């Protein structure tokens, strides 16, 4: 498998990439596009199933592009994620990672997502796109969603053309819906939202967003617990990790790697509402958390105050500016925690390396950008320490990886 939706085969010296296959499958496939180095094919008929192939549970597969690995037995998915991680680190850095135990499997491979974001078509149907296309696959349920999606489907249908995407976020046993509109909500939209909250007990709140415009109806707060005794309240439309159970394991590992000493300076860049900052502050660190999202920073501050954590400060700023600002201020963190979006943070690596923290823990949901950014840190004097993966996204190729970088 690639680090993506494709199985890899070879034909006359050319690589052929085919989606919806499992390792060892023999399939008849039709080539749909050809590039210089590789071709992409569409499986037409399964001739012989590989040992790790299974029947996907989801009735929308293989058309739906949401779960690209559901046809692979779960234990094999975890094994492939480990092999891919080992291969990437080996290729990029010549490091030999042990694949055994490298990726922490999820306890639940279905119904694990505490938030799902769905597309909406012109008729108001909700779903995911087909793989590599903008065609919507309309769905009435989703096997990996931990929340029912029918209330969102009703809201999308009523809002129709005004709404491009809808997100369903678990709020305890209830849910919050976030409607992403192409224009600010009008009175009719707000009336539809209010009526849904009144008539459907499962819907605690609705947020309607259009650029900077944010209209909240009902209760749109959710509570996230990165570790026992640490609860973070934040708006449902602020970033939170999609897999709450795996997030607890990740936070525990990051805290173990961090080995936070009392009063040591910790910089948490891309801190969101404080998923790592607040656990580090509970261990006595002097934490500075930075994120561009002002509402996430406001939530982080409020949560710190509620928990009586006074050794933590949160700054709403772009990470790139922060690294420069802190260097000029001669700030010397003992540890930097970095958890950027999927695109990574290459532009930041030089500035971060100049802070000369003894250790950096880089948390990433994309191996390609992770390896690229770690390479930049290695050039500036860091070496790879421990690497730990967590399967946040069962039935897809995605994986969350925490890497410890040590200043040599
Ligand atoms: C993957 S999330 C991680 C959040 C947090 N560490 C957590 O675990 O919940 C990435 C975060 O980066 C923030 N972000 C995106 N671009 C940024 C930038 N240029 N500077 C600072 N923060 C940014 C987003 O607002 C988001 O909170």
Describe the structure.
By secondary structure, this protein is an alpha/beta fold. It folds into three domains: about 1-55, Nucleic acid-binding proteins (OB fold (Dihydrolipoamide Acetyltransferase, E2P), Beta Barrel), CATH 2.40.50.140; about 115-220, OB fold (Dihydrolipoamide Acetyltransferase, E2P), CATH 2.40.50.1070; about 245-405, Vaccinia Virus protein VP39 (Rossmann fold). The protein contains nine helices and 21 strands. The protein has helices at about 75-95, 150-160, 185-200, 245-260, 275-280, 295-305, 320-330, 350-355, 365-380; strands at about 5-10, 15-20, 25-35, 40-50, 105, 115-120, 125-130, 135-140, 165-170, 175-180, 205-210, 215-220, 220-225, 230-235, 265-270, 285-290, 310-315, 335-340, 360-365, 380-390, 400-405. An eight-stranded mixed sheet has the order 5-20-21-19-18-15-16-17, with helices on both faces. A seven-stranded mixed sheet has the order 8-7-6-9-10-11-12. The protein has a four-stranded mixed sheet with strand order 1-2-4-3, with no helix packed on it. The radius of gyration is 22 Å and the shape is globular. The two termini are about 35 Å apart. The mean pLDDT is about 95. Bound molecules: S-adenosylmethionine. S-adenosylmethionine (SAM) binds next to strand 16.
């Amino acid at each position: 498998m690639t680090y993506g939706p494709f199985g890899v085969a070879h034909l006359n010296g050319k690589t052929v990439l085919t989606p919806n296959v499992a390792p060892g499958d023999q399939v008849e496939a039709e080539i749909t596009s050809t590039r210089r180095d590789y071709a992409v094919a569409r499986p037409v008929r399964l001739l012989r199933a590989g040992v790790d192939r299974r029947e996907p549970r989801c009735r929308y597969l293989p058309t739906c592009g949401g779960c690209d690995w559901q046809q692979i037995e779960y234990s094999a998915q975890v094994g492939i994620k480990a092999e891919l991680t080992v291969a990437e680190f080996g290729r990029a850095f010549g490091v030999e990672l042990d694949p055994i135990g490298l990726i922490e499997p999820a306890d639940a491979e279905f119904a694990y997502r505490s938030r799902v974001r769905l597309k909406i078509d012109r008729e108001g149907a909700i779903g995911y796109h087909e793989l590599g296309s903008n065609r919507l696959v309309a769905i009435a349920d989703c096997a990996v969603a931990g929340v029912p999606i029918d209330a969102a489907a009703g809201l999308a249908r009523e809002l129709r053309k005004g709404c491009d995407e809808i997100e369903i976020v678990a709020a305890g046993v209830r849910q919050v819906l976030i409607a992403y509109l192409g224009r600010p909500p009008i009175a009719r939209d707000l009336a539809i939202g209010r009526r849904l909250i009144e008539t459907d007990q499962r819907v605690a709140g609705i947020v309607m967003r259009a650029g900077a415009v944010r209209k909240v109806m009902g209760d749109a707060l959710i509570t996230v617990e990165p570790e026992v005794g640490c609860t973070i309240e934040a708006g449902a439309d602020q970033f939170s990790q999609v897999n709450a159970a795996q997030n607890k394991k990740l936070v525990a590992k990051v805290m173990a790697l961090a080995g936070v000493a009392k009063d040591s300076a910790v910089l948490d860049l891309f801190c969101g509402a404080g998923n790592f900052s607040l656990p580090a502050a509970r261990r006595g660190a002097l934490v500075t958390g930075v994120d561009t999202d002002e509402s996430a920073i406001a939530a982080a501050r409020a949560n710190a105050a509620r928990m009586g954590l006074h050794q933590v400060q949160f700054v709403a700023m772009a990470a790139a500016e922060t690294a420069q600002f802190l260097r000029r201020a001669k700030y010397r963190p003992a540890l930097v925690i970095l958890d950027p979006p999927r695109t990574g943070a290459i532009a930041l690596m030089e500035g971060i390396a100049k802070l000369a923290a003894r250790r950096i823990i880089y948390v990433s949901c994309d191996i390609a950008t992770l390896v690229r950014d770690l390479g930049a840190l290695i050039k500036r004097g860091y070496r790879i320490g421990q690497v730990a993966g967590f399967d946040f996204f069962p039935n897809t190729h995605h994986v969350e990886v925490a890497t410890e970088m040590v200043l040599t």
